[in-house]
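Bug #77: duplicate submission created two jobs. Keeping one. Sequence:
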Amino acid sequence: MTNASKKHDTMVAATRAFEELRKMGVPVIDIQDEGHFRISGEENGDIIWADYYQEYKMTYLDDFGVHKNINKILAKHGLYAEWANPGYLNVYTA
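Kept job's structure:
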C-alpha cells in the first residue's frame, strides 16, 4: 500500500467517525487534511461527552473521562482519542 493510499484510507475513516460522532451530538471540531480531528471537553450539554477532571461520576465515562460510545466509534474506524489539554481531545490513527 502506498503512502498516498494510506493517507486516503485514514482520511476516509476519520471522516466517517467524525460524521457519526457529530450526528450523535458529540462536539467534534477541526477535521484536518491528514484525517485527525478534535473533540471538545468544554462543550458538554445534557450529555457529558468528555470530562478531563472527571467531576461528573458518570458510569458511561471511561477511566480517562471519555464517553464510552466515543471510544467504540473511534475503535470501529481504527482511531483513538487522547487528551491534548483539559479542553479537548485529539483523535489519531491507532
